[in-house]
Amino acid sequence: IKSYPLVLDGLVEMGLMELDKKLITVGLLSRYLDLDSAKLPPFISPSSDLVIDGVVLSGKLSSREEKVLRMMLDSGGKIVSKESLIEDIWEGVEVSDWAVDSLVSRLRKRLNEIGVKSRLITKKGRGYVWQL
Questions:
Q1: Over the Cα atoms of the chain, what is R_g?
Q2: Same domain, 64 and 94
Q3: Helical residues (DSSP H) of the chain, grouped into ranges
Q4: 3-state class of 128 per DSSP?
Q5: Structure pTM?
Q6: Is 132 exposed, middle or buried (0-12, 13-18, 19+ CB in 10 A)?
Q7: Are residues 56 and 121 in the same domain?
C-alpha cells in the first residue's frame, strides 16, 4: 500500500476507499455493511455458505433442507414442482408427495427457529416457490 500513494489518493477522492488512521475500508463495502441485512436478497457467499436475512444457514439445516432451499433460490421466483424436488433431493428414489410436504414443513419450521422469515409459498397442485 505504501508504494501506491497516488492510486490510494485517487480511490479516496472518488469515494471508493476511505482511510481512517490505521484502518482502510473500501467505501462500497462499508456502505454495504451499513445496510439492514434483513433487506438484502438471499445469496451464496464466496465460501458457498447460504445467507438469508443476514443469517448464515450453512450447517444449520439438514442436507435435504438446504437442497430444497437452494433449489428454491436458484429457480429465481419460479415454481419448483414436487417432481423436481423428488428427482433432485431423493435422486430418483420413489417417495410420496407427503415426504416432500413433510420436508418443506420442517424447513419452514427450522427457518423460523433460526430467525429467518420463510418466504416459501405452496402453490397447490403445482409445487413451491420462494417469494422474492
A1: 21
A2: yes
A3: 5-13, 27-34, 63-74, 82-89, 97-114
A4: strand
A5: 0.67
A6: exposed
A7: yes
Q: Which three cell numbers stand for residue 58?
A: 450453512
Structural domain containing residue 22: 5-34
Average pLDDT of every residue of the chain = 78
Name residue, grid cell 458457498.
Answer: 48
How many domains does one find in the chain?
Answer: 2
pLDDT of residue 127: 96
CATH of the domain at 113: 1.10.10.10
Q: Are residues 18 and 51 in the same domain?
A: no
CB atoms < 10 A from the CB of 23, how many?
A: 7
pLDDT attached to residue 2: 43
CB 16 within 8 A of CB 8: no
Say whether both 44 and 59 belong to one domain: yes
Q: Which three cell numbers stand for residue 23?
A: 484502518
Name the grid cell of 99. 415426504
